[in-house]
Design a protein that fits this description.
- The structure is a single chain.
- With 130 residues, this protein is an all-beta fold.
- The protein contains no helices and 9 strands.
- The strands form 2 sheets. Strands 1, 2, 3, 6 and 7 form a 5-stranded antiparallel β-sheet that branches. It has a 4-stranded antiparallel β-sheet with strand order 5-4-8-9, with no helix packed on it.
- It is globular.
- The relative contact order is 0.23.
- The mean pLDDT is 84.
């Protein structure tokens, strides 16, 4: 569900944040009234890069289990400098990530799959799990 359509943005507070230099700010946001989290991102209007940036909310159950992405925001560009994902469950463990690889790609997974599954951190980053 969209946090702004649901009216969850009025009491939203960042609980974790990361920056990609001065170009991109990504926040993991929590709403007390909706008991929900989501990722929101803001691109600097002076951004000169031409790659598409993806923003995602990643979650995993508190008791453990597979992680999954909620509502990828694709193609965050100078023409679309602000975006947010769909809401996720606040009772899980969550993080907000950006990457320039593609949708559903986690730049900092809990475990890399297979040999050589790691990509350079310059392709994306995540807040700490909260």
């Amino acid at each position: 569900m969209d946090p702004y359509v649901a009216g969850c943005d009025w009491d939203a507070e960042p609980i974790a944040q990361l920056n990609k230099g001065n170009d991109l700010e990504v926040q993991l946001v929590y709403s007390y009234s909706c008991n929900a989290v989501w990722a929101r991102a803001t691109l600097n209007p002076a951004y000169t890069g031409n790659e598409s940036l993806y923003v995602e909310l990643w979650s995993t159950p508190t008791g453990g289990g597979a992680q999954w992405a909620h509502g990828t925001t694709k193609y965050l560009t100078r023409d679309l400098p602000q975006a947010h994902t769909l809401m996720g469950d606040w009772q899980g463990t969550n993080k907000a990530c950006w990457n320039k690889v593609g949708a559903r790609w986690d730049p900092a997974p809990l475990h890399y799959e297979g040999a050589g599954g790691s990509m350079p951190r310059t392709t994306g980053d995540c807040t700490a799990w909260q």
